[in-house]
Amino acid sequence: METALEVYNDTEMKSPETQPIKRRKKKSMVWEHFTIESVEPNCRRAFCKGCKQSFAYSNGNKVAGTSHLKRHIAKGTCPALIHTQDNDNNQLMGTPYTPKSDTPRRRYRTQNGSSYVAFNQDKCRQEIAKMIIMHDYPLHMVEHPGFISFVHSIQPHFDAVSFNNVQGDCVATYLAEKQNVMKSLERIPGRFCLTLDFWKSKVTLGYVFITAHFIDSDWKIQKKLLNVLMESYPEADEALSLAVANCVSEWGLEGKLFSVTFNHPASNPAVENIRPLLCIKNPGILDGQLVIGNCVARTFSSLAKDVLEKGKDVIKNIRDSVKHVKTSESHEERFVELKEQLQVPSEKVLSLDDQTQWNTTYKMLVAASELKEVFSCLDTADPDYKQPPSAEYWRHVEALCTFLKPLFEAASTLRSSENPSAVTFFHEVWKTQSDLSRAIAGEDPYVASIAKTMKEKVDKYWRDCSLVLAMAVVMDPRFKMKLVEFSFSKIFGEDAGKNIKTVDDGIHELFSEYMALPAPLKPTSEGGKVDGLSDFDTYIMETTGQNLKSELDQYLDETLLPRVQEFDVLDWWKQNKLKYPTLSKMARDILSISVSAAAFDYVFDMEPREMDEYKTSLRPETVEALICAREWLLENDASSAAAQMSSANIKTEA
């Protein structure tokens, strides 16, 4: 598959001397600072060697000349040349030249007549590309008559750009941002955990969004969208592994991939194809659960879907009642008046649900349930209201809400936290399984039938993911193996010992893998100077016998920390990384594992996301460039805003 770089850039830099013989030799000194590159058929651009900014050069038979290139390096606008000039005491590659006969850049006097605004065609094109990317506008908008008229009304001298032009500009923006992302990932000390979020399309193509999750040098959990890859045959056994292999190769993650989580149904061969790509080569560790085939968001949505299916007749009756109130102003007025007469204390507001988002159905049921007294009497105040829910239906609504509430709260955690930890969902899944077991044993057959259907899926998720979730719990100094032992004894009964041993063996085997890695440099005292006491450290280890225990066993044997509400497990490991130099590396990677592959905006979706028809009409490389660049640019803006706010707060405090 051709990459965006191969499509839009001629990777072999051409000097002026290698241009076709028909073109006269370029003698201008401007070519000391620029190279010419093809960005698309019949279109070449000049790239500054210093700052890499691109400028128009030729389009077909039309050549832009060199005046604008000279202005870039002669007027002090190139940041790279400015830096060089500062370092060389204003001696910039000889004496700066000033164009003599070139037409000056267009400048326009402002209303107060005191300043000028320079028009820059290339800068405008860059901003148009950025606007299209950030606001998800269609590329074709630059050819729309309304857009062309609008731009010309602002700047008559702006040369209209085509679809191909702006497509190339967007890809160029993506490639520039990609280089920044790659540099930032090179500085990450630990390994990477990937999530694969599959989207479908109306044309049977699949798209996989690959996101890297990792912990940075400051021990903060981070994530970064790396790829949006089109899969022609998403159901094929090779689809998953090819997507992961492409990502690993493209981003240089060989030997750095710790786990993979995905939300797409996959066969056993498809899962096994991924394992060789992981850095942990022993497939038996934790029963191979470092490849996680059950995304927790999709599991919750599947459970909610089962609940709603069981109560579909009841839900339809409630939805019709809410629709009666909300689609007529007079009906709603009567409902509100009756509520006030009955003095119903609920503050809930009725709203119709979006049947593609199960949380909206849950909220509709909760609001209706709290207002059931009003609905029960509404036919007396509103003669148009014909079918109030029966008392049995209201009991069923309460049962449905009882099942949906823990799912809603757990999924809300996914949505409210950018990177929810596996520790959180160990608690959620364990609690859900326990609640369902009690519901099945209850006397209400309607409740028991729902609980039985749900428990089958929860049991499967627990079998597939409990070990990797438990591993994260062990890395929390408030719980360690104690919570695993307690919860497994409740869930597995007689088989608890076997499952506890699997977790304990897996943790120790994994630690052995980390011990086999090259030893890190011993920490030095402040300022980087050796304090001369390394022999003393060895003496302490030998005389106290601490060397007889591994870091892992020392950690597990220590007393549990108090279970305070606001506890930052990553900060704890940051503070204790010198005490546990090897174990902290393992903890860093384990706590990077993401239990959900779905983006937090989509955790309540009833079905997989679908790529819109416009994007599926574009080239796969262009789709990836638009989506990834948008994510990165928005992250940059958010980081800049946060930095400005932090700076403002510091100034205020000062």
TrEMBL record:
Residues 1-21 are annotated as: Disordered. It is found in: Nucleus. The keyword Zinc applies. Transmembrane segments: none annotated. It comes from the Eukaryota. Homodimer. This is Zinc finger BED domain-containing protein DAYSLEEPER. It comes from Camelina sativa.
